Amino acid sequence: MAKGYWVGHVSVDDLETYKGYVEAGTIAYKKYGARFLVRGGRFEGVEGENRARNVVVEFDSYEQALACYNSPEYAAARKIRQSCATTDMIVIEGAE
């Protein structure tokens, strides 16, 4: 079974509030087995538009990735993030 991923590109407007988002998401991340492969870090934008922060989160399956994003546990965290950051995010199925 192919894994599932969240791929996010984020511009944070309020770092203190964003820290609250990260903390609030912990319950959902643990419940759905999220593993952060990329969480910020150094990067070189080589094509297209870029945001200051990039995140890749791995799940055991595409279904788990979607379930986490749509979960009540993550909804509260997402609301915090949307109040303090601009985000482009996809949920995608990995290659088998």
Characterise the protein shown here:
- This protein is of the alpha+beta class and 96 residues long.
- It has one domain (4-43, 51-84): Alpha-Beta Plaits (2-Layer Sandwich), CATH 3.30.70.100.
- The protein is 40% helix and 31% strand.
- The chain has a four-stranded antiparallel beta sheet.
- It is globular.
TL;DR?
With 96 residues, the protein is of the alpha+beta class. The protein has 3 helices and 4 strands, in the order βαββααβ.
Lateral strand order in the biggest sheet: 2-3-1-4
CATH topology: Alpha-Beta Plaits
Question: What's the CATH class, please?
Answer: Alpha Beta
SS-derived structural category: alpha+beta
Total separate domains: 1
Average pLDDT across residues? 96
Q: How many DSSP helices?
A: 3
Oligomer: single chain
Strand content: 25-35%
Overall radius of gyration: 13 Å
Write the CATH architecture name.
2-Layer Sandwich
Shape: globular
End-to-end Cα distance: 7 Å
Order of SSEs, N→C?
Answer: EHEEHHE
Largest β sheet strand count, sense and barrel closure: 4 strands, antiparallel
